[in-house]
Write a structure and sequence with these properties.
With 278 residues, the chain is an alpha/beta fold. It is 29% helix and 18% strand. It has a single domain (4-274), classed as Alpha/Beta hydrolase fold, catalytic domain (Rossmann fold, 3-Layer(aba) Sandwich), CATH 3.40.50.1820. The chain has helices spanning 60-68, 86-100, 102-105, 119-130, 166-173, 175-179, 184-188, 216-227, 265-274, and strands at residues 4-6, 22-27, 40-46, 72-77, 107-117, 150-154, 202-207, 232-237. An eight-stranded mixed sheet has the order 1-2-4-3-5-6-7-8, sandwiched between helices. Strand 7, helix 8 (216-227) and strand 8 (232-237) form a beta-alpha-beta unit.
Length: 278
């Protein structure tokens, strides 16, 4: 598969150089004379993995499912175990790349959504909340190039507070600030505190008995969206393990990842995309 290296000026931004570059993998329907030119919606996928690794279960299989539904997909393998805001700036650069090459990819530049799973959803939500202010504005003179038109958050890590997935937050800001979370660095990565009037519409789903990332993360984010009158669609399913991905045999490690009750999230999500994120 084609890969595109995503390079940001790490040293200039005071960030450590990663061991390997972040890279973007397009999974797109090719141009076809019979179908004609299209401007398709797009998603940029941020796999989960606690900011420790990028889960393959939440990457190419998800992209292929979206592409099969006419949504051009791109998987971002972002830098892990790197301090905030490294991965955030990589995602911003990835959105800018897709928008800048929209004609080549047959993408509508005004229908580019970011989607993430677990810690990857924290990354997607971070760009949704920070796209037009620091630290992103320190990388782009015109931040409209990296603006996501929508965000899709799947069993997301949201908060650095009481209900945090502490491992994910520690990989972002260090163990000390993650454990003693009443501090500015923890506040900066608590997305329920970062929602603002420019945050784009959101599709969100979670299970109420998730025993890894508590559902309170989604509930806090929903409250913050509602307080800012940001449109959102949310699905809270009664039962399901963390990390369900597509909820079927495609991405299952075992029977616990096969969940017909939660599987409709994908069709609901693509319908929301087609409605224009409404």
């Amino acid at each position: 598969m084609e890969t595109v290296d995503i390079i940001i000026p790490y040293a200039d931004l005071g960030l450590p150089l990663p061991d390997y570059p972040a890279h973007l993998v397009p999974v797109c329907l090719p141009a076809a004379e019979e179908i004609g030119e299209k401007k398709r919606p797009a998603v940029i996928i941020c796999p989960g993995g606690g900011y420790d690794y990028c889960s393959e279960r939440e990457a190419i299989p998800v992209a292929m499912r979206f592409a099969g539904c006419g949504v051009q997909a791109f998987v971002l393998y972002y830098t892990c175990r790197s301090p905030f805001p490294g991965a955030l700036l990589e995602l911003a650069a990835a959105v800018a790349h897709v928008r800048g090459h929209a004609a080549e990819y047959e993408v509508d530049p005004e229908r580019i959504a970011v989607i993430g799973f677990s810690a990857g959803a924290h990354l997607a939500g971070s760009l949704a909340d920070y796209w037009n202010r620091k630290p992103v504005s320190g990388l782009f003179a015109d931040t409209s190039v990296c603006r996501p038109n929508a965000q899709i958050l799947c069993y997301p890590v949201i908060s650095a507070g009481e209900h945090a997935h502490r491992g994910s937050i520690a990989n972002l800001i260090g163990s000390a600030d993650a454990e003693q979370y009443d501090n500015p660095r923890a506040d900066a990565v608590s997305l329920e505190k970062q929602v603002n009037a420019d945050t784009p519409p959101c599709f969100l789903w979670h299970t109420s008995d998730d025993n890894c990332v508590p559902v309170q993360n989604s509930l806090l984010y929903m409250q913050a969206l509602a307080a800012q009158a940001i449109p959102f669609e949310a699905h809270i399913y009664p039962h399901g393990a963390h990390g369900l991905s597509l909820c079927d045999e495609t991405t299952a490690m075992g029977d616990w990842h096969i969940n017909p009750t939660c599987a409709p999230w994908f069709d609901a999500c693509t319908a929301w995309i087609r409605r224009g994120y409404r």
